[in-house]
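REVIEWER CHECKLIST
Item 1: Sequence provided? yes
Item 2: Single chain? yes
Item 3: Sequence as submitted:
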Amino acid sequence: MTIDIVVVMVFVSFIIGGGLSYVLWDRALRSKKDKLIRDGQAEAEVLKKDKILQAKEKFLYLKAEHEKFVNEKNVKINLLEQKVKQRESSLNLRQEEFQKKNNEIEAIRANLNKQLEVVENKGVELEKMHKKQVEKLEDLSNMSAEEAKAQLVESMKEEAKTEAMSYINDIMDEAKISANKESKRIVVQTIQRVATETAIENSVTVFNIDNDEIKGRIIGREGRNIRALEAATGIEIIVDDTPEAIILSGFDPVRREIARLALHQLVTDGRIHPARIEEVVAKTKKQIEEEIIETGKRTAIDLGVHGLHPELIRLIGKMKYRSSYGQNLLQHSREVANLCAIMASELGLNTKVAKRAGLLHDIGKVPDDEPELPHAILGMKLAEKYKEKPDVCNAIGAHHDELEMTTLISPIVQVCDAISGARPGARREVVESYIKRLKDLENLALSYPGVTKTYAIQAGRELRVIVGSDKISDVEAESLSYDISKKIQDEMTYPGQIKITVIRETRAIAYAK
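Item 4: Structure as written out by the authors:
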């Protein structure tokens, strides 16, 4: 019984305690809730005040910007109003001036009308007086007014013609003076812009050797090697006491170069005998031909001249081994080409055509057959043969006045050729005449039947003539040497004496197979 009472009492106390705690917890929650609401309201008031302040600041800023913009606009409007007022005042002044000038013009016009009326009245009187004077003059001169007028017109025409001719002559003289000055300026400017070295070819080449023992091998037994070299190359080979040197003498630079290269190859190889000499000389000639073509191609590329026929390129390369009055022909042609291009550009002409004509102008000096024609005409024919343009052909053919010039390029080539040739130190007349005499000497002997090769050696003091053994006998060879000497004596002028040597050799060739 007591236990149940205790349990009941505990249960009742528990319920009472739970209710009290709940009441306390509820009160705590309500107080916390009220506090949160109060805090939220306070923060909201603060935010509200901040936003109101920010809005006021933004408003004030925008108001200031607007007032600034309005002020600037007002300033601009005031400036424009001032300008308008100034223009209005200036227009008013101009209008007043215009009105004054208009009044003056009206006054002048009224005055002129009055004067015109007076002049017209006087004109009528003068017309009457003029008619009376004309009638009196006609009566006195027995000539009508029309006839007198025609006579006066004719006299005026003659006077005008005389004055016009005098005026034209003055203009022509002035034009000639100015043209002369301008042409001198162009020529001087052209010469100043071209500076090239002058290469003077001589008639001797020195071949250096390592020791003098090689001289004996070059001479050979009883001189057979040196004779074979001279016969194959046409160059006189002088072996004297000059230490470590052999002299190659000949007026033709191509032959000298062939002899030099062949001799160099023979000495380097060590095998020196007549058959080997002929083989090496033949190979060297072929090598020189290839070098000539390469020189022509390189020259055309350097000058920018394109589309040349291969034969023209070969002839340009041959110019390297030719000289004109002591002046290297290739160097002269390059110089003339550059001069022509510069002068053509100064005159507003085609520089490429001018340079092409300048390069080819002396092509007639290096043909293979050398017919009896002036080199300018021969060069023109070669250019026509290899399809060069008419302007270029005419410039080549007319640069020594053998033909009439038909284009403006022709006189330019002629002038530039003269500039290059007349330059101090460019040419030597003596060397050219000497080489021409040696060529004539060789050609004279070559004109006889049976002669295969001719070489002028020892500076023209000896002429070696090689004949075919199957065409000329020993007796005929002796007669031929006499005939050639007699013809040279009768037809040519030369210093001292010339030795004519006719060489006739028999060769037997067989092949072992």
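Item 5: Key structural point noted by reviewer: Residues 195-202, 423-430 have pLDDT under 50 and may be disordered.
Item 6: Recommendation: ____
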